[in-house]
Write a structure and sequence with these properties.
The protein has 10 helices and 7 strands. It is of the alpha/beta class.
């Protein structure tokens, strides 16, 4: 359809019914992706490939038959993954009549949304889409982005995420919060995580958050494992001030 723009679809599919029409390797891959999102997946297709046996063991319902229009009933999302454009068009038409989002693999005219190429690192998700024009280009960009993102980026999302509630509570103004998050990144939180210095990264986050809240930075005590290590090495670690030295009594000479 000339002039039509297609966009990636981001939905919470946990516990929701999704349909995949097709019985080959592509349909199996789509079913697996939906399953990883927590969807309740049903597959309809003649002579399902061997890959579906493992998916059935994980809870996917496989119906080895031709597609019927009533199959789309009560589905949150539909994917047509057959090599027959006529079948894909029939799946798309049935879904559109019910207002259900539908994607037909490599068949943009029969799509109401595009499934992007995705790079995941923990809770961090990067989606790449070419609007259905070039899946090959999307794969190339995906590979390059994947080479740039390490597990430290997943750790960064986890660390900042654990402090998001505290930040919203203690720093009411959104602009101040944005500057505080930016300062954490500018002051090397990601670089600390890249070096494996989780403690240093956490201290930077605490300091920037405290300063944004208008308080003096709070120095967090070292973790228990580091305290124990210090004691084993003969170091004294205590938050109490040292006791004053006792004065010796001078004995008077008789």
């Amino acid at each position: 359809m000339p002039g039509v723009k297609y966009y990636p679809l981001f939905m919470d599919l946990a516990g929701r019914a999704c349909l995949v029409v097709g019985a080959g390797a592509v349909a199996a891959r789509k079913a697996r992706s939906l399953l990883e999102c927590g969807a309740v997946v049903t597959v309809v297709g003649e002579r399902p490939a061997a890959a579906f046996r493992s998916l059935e063991r994980r809870g996917v319902t496989v119906l080895p038959r031709r597609f019927q229009a009533r199959d789309v009933g009560r589905q949150a999302l539909v994917i047509a993954a057959t090599d027959d454009r006529t079948v894909n068009a029939a799946v798309s038409a049935a879904a559109r009549r019910r207002g259900i989002p539908v994607n037909a693999v490599d068949d943009p005219p029969n799509c109401t949304f595009i499934v992007p190429a995705v790079v995941r690192r923990g809770d961090l998700t990067v989606a790449i889409s070419t609007g259905g024009k070039s899946p090959a280009a999307a794969r190339l960009v995906k590979e390059r982005i994947a080479s740039m993102l390490g597990e430290e980026h997943a750790a960064l999302v986890r660390l900042l995420g654990t402090h998001r509630g505290r930040m919203k509570e203690q720093v009411p103004r959104q602009g101040n919060r944005a500057r505080a998050w930016r300062r954490m990144l500018d002051e090397g939180v990601l670089e600390s995580l890249e070096r494996g210095d989780r403690i240093g990264a956490t201290k930077t986050v605490h300091r920037c958050l405290s300063e944004a809240a208008g308080r003096s930075p709070v120095t967090a005590p070292p973790p228990m494992d580091l305290q124990a290590k210090g004691r084993r090495n003969g170091e004294v670690r205590s938050d109490r001030p040292p006791k004053p030295a006792r004065k010796r009594r001078q004995r008077s000479r008789r």
